[in-house]
Here is the input.
Amino acid sequence: MILSRGPKLCNFLEWRGLKVVYKRYASLYFCMCVDADDNELETLEIIHHFVEILDRYFGNVCELDLIFNFHKAYYILDEVLIAGELQETSKKSVARVIAAQDTLIEHAKEQSNSLSNIIAQATK
Amino acid sequence: MALSGMRGLSVFISDVRNCQNKEQERVRVDKELANIRTRFKNERGLSVYEKKKYVWKMLYIYMLGYDVDFGHMETVQLISAPKYAEKQVGYIVTSCLLNENHDFLRLVINTVRNDIIGRNETFQCLALTMVGNVGGREFSESLAPDVQKLLISNSCRPLVRKKAALCLLRLYRKNPDVVNVDGWSERMVQLLDERDLGVLTAVMSLLVALVANTPHAYWNCVPKCVRTLERLTRGQDIPQEYTYYGIPSPWLQVKTMRVLQYFPKIDDPTIRKSLLDVLQRILLGTDVVKNVNKNNASHAVLFEALALVMHLDADKEMMSQCVVLLGKFISVREPNIRYLGLENMTRILLVADVADSIKKHQSQIITSLKDPDISIRRRSLDLLYGMCDVSNAKDIVEELLQYLTTADFGIREELALKAAILSEKFAPDLSWYVDVILQLIEKAGDFVSDDIWYRVVQFVTNNDDLQVHAAAKALDYLDKPAVHETMVKVSGYILGEYSHLLARRPGCSPRDIFHILNDKFPAVTTPTKALLLSACVKIMMHCQPPDPELVDQVVAVFRRYESSVDAEVQQRAVEFLALARKGTAFVDIMAEMPKFPERQSPLLKKAEDTDGDASEVSATKIRQQQMQQEQNSTALVVADPQPANGGLHPVSVPKTAAPARHSEQAVTSETPQDSKSFPPSQSQAHSNGGTPQQAPGHTPGSASADLLSDLVGPLSLEAPPPVASTSSSDLLALEAPPTPTAAAATPADSLALALLDSAPTQVQPLGNVSEWFKELTLKDSGVLYEDPYVQIGLKAEWRNAQGRIVLFVGNKHTGPLTNVKSSVLPPPHLRMQSAVVPENIPPRAQVQVPVDVACLSASRETAVLEFSFNVGHAPVSVQLKLPTSLNKFLQVAPVSANEFVARWRALGGPPSKLQEVVRGVRPMPLAEMANLFIRLHIGVANGLDPNVNNVVAATTFYSGTAATLCLVRVETDPSDRTQMRLTVASEDPNTTYELKEFIKEQVMDIPFPGQSPQAATVTPATIPLTGPAAALAGLI
Here is the structure.
């Protein structure tokens, strides 16, 4: 439905009593489905906000970044939206949280690496 | 950024991406699923790393659209893992793969709870996010208190608190009971002082949901919201990171304004003023800028401000300012703004009296109807539909018709329906209406439902001066090549009935017309063939003097279909053939169809129905309902908002009233109009002078069926049969009528009379009034009465000897109810005071009528409500029993065994203690009887009586200032449940007697005559729902 729409049309599409708000970035489409009386432009800018955060995180985000790091995209989305509602509007704050998460995971990995090193050495 | 070294996953993703086609992809995915499955089976050897990897793979496969129906256990187990990295994977994949009803979620509730109340902030975040995204009812019940604690905790970081706010929002949506309204509103006020804008945004989202449900509980938040909005719009004290393209958090602004829209109205003059000032600034201070995002964000705020202005019902000046703005928007190039401009124009039309200023933009709106974007076209269609009235109907409908030829299929059906509705609603004259519909059929026949052409036939039949015009038009259209089948039907029908009126015009001789019809036979479906056969026989019969050549040709047609495989066609052909042989003797049977009884337009009804569906969710509707709940102090009229897509405006276009109704007038003038006691069913029949819109929807419930039957009717000869399938029986009846011409003429003459007498116009309650009353005896809210026009709901509260009943009188109808009167007739033992009902109830509005009740003594009599109203000109009046039954003044009395026995003994015998063996009891198990007693507020004291077949109960009866303890004992016979011995004792003989009788009534199968809890009948005993057709069939 969205794909068949030309470039100069509006970003809203009525669908089964709901509205689909979408935005295209190169070959990627981001869509959100909202109630008929929700604020469409607000939703549109939530999409853009999310994309800006992705962009900042991945550094010029592209399709491949998202495909191979789909789980990262999920983390970030979880920091932006919960229960369909906007959680954080500050890009900085989101970036901080994600960075903190990354360190935690790295940290855990190092730990397990060092552990397995120790085990490996011990079993030698 | 590599996938944290998860090579296996990257390889898999690359593999899938390298697949040439869907088939290869499926093979690759299936292979992977099989692999994961076997690995999970031998779980022993699985390292933590592998577990994570496989779970990610599952999610990826799920994302591709494949079913993943295993491995949920492994995923859920990761949540319980001690380390962050595993937990995170577990939580995220769980929230994607499982929905709220999944059984496995139950397994983790405890782990999740431990994470939430634990000290580890990162775990708290994970758990809150997951619950926020999938949390269902069970989560709600077990986690809500902990989440609330986190939200208001001072020691938590903003990061956790904002997640807690949204998590609570989710839980609240699943189960509103988790938030205790009383205590929580104060908390919300405190939370609105939050300095961290991230938390404030989340809190505002929560507030939107809370206020939407119970606005009156959160009044104290209004000033804070207004202040927040002021602060945001002024840009005071907003950290740089919370501005978006230079705008201070547009999202928070929008949310704050959204909250304010859920409050019914803001009365406090200072708050209102400062709010309007802020809005004014937004309205005037928003400019179109180059940057798309900035533009979007600022307009998001602007449109929300517009919505709030509409909601606040601001003064005229501000409203017209809004219209000017919207007028600007609908002509800009940017499609989003154009779309929203049109959408909001439709909305403002519904709340404010701005129709005239919007009409100035009509040409621009019509241009948008041709926009390349379907979304915009739809908005523009809706707006045109909404702004249409008598003054511009011609222009707008003609535009719609013109557009219909080029419109794409996505919108055609809607377009056709809307054009049909508008032309019916606002037709300056009926011939125009007929023209429009015929054009509509020509241009978009596929989208013109049968309802639409049936309606045309009704109008033409009922309006003599329309018939010539319609016949001429029908002939024009039918004479064209490649005519749509619907056109054949409507034209065939009209020509069959009225073509003889054209006979003097050139090219309109019966023979010409027959040839045109005859040409259509090969191309049409069987039902249409049947219709054409009827048309032919009518043309033949109307031809004066008889034309032998024409008769021969027509007979040839009948012969052709004499052996048709279709039973209906065959039967008609055979019967018409027989009629043709009898010659002119039967010309009266082929007379024009009698007039149809007025009825609600099925189109309008359809539009109404769809509106109902669509508006159920809309915030405006919710808001409106809230308003109604708010104002329960006195009777008040609240008109429902017009639904967004135009819906039904209360229209009054008396100009279209059809003048020709002699036969009906003749009949109706015989009956008195004024008497209120006159059976409503008959007096309703008087209301036929109105316009189509005003015509009350007689028996809307069966309108469509009626309609169908009436219109299939013409296919048979003289009478609309009750339902299509039985039409053949009527035809059979035709064969039998007595031969004398005179006899044949009489039924035809009496047709109109019969039709009116038995017109299905009585107002029937939609259910059993006495059942409703019975229900209400046992509970305190429910339906008291409902018919096609009115619904009376009831809600009652009782405390000791006092009570308050609130009647909710709703007009279900599309026209206003006028001359509404209600009076409460209290029995001697009750003192009652009722608010006054407004005289008129607008369409789809509800009025609340509080009634205060005080009980003075015990009696089984109940109060009666006399309620009357007019629909159109027809008075309807009902008498309803109000559930002020004895038990409403009872309260369960906890009595100890000793006390009971002592009392029981003290109350020796009659008249304080009465005993009776009751027969004819509705057989019920003891538990059910106990249950019934409890529902009647007669408390059952278990174990007091050693005999298990007995029920002992105690209750207190309140009257005036007195409270009388009543004791009840029921002894049942397990072998015969239809009888029992009932003993009632109290200090007051009258109370004892009345209570005993009351209990008797409640347990007996057949209530006492005269005491039956049945409301006075609403309708006299008229023929139950027979169509005119049935009555006619009886006549023949």
User: Anything to note?
Assistant: DSSP finds 42 helices and 17 strands in chain B.
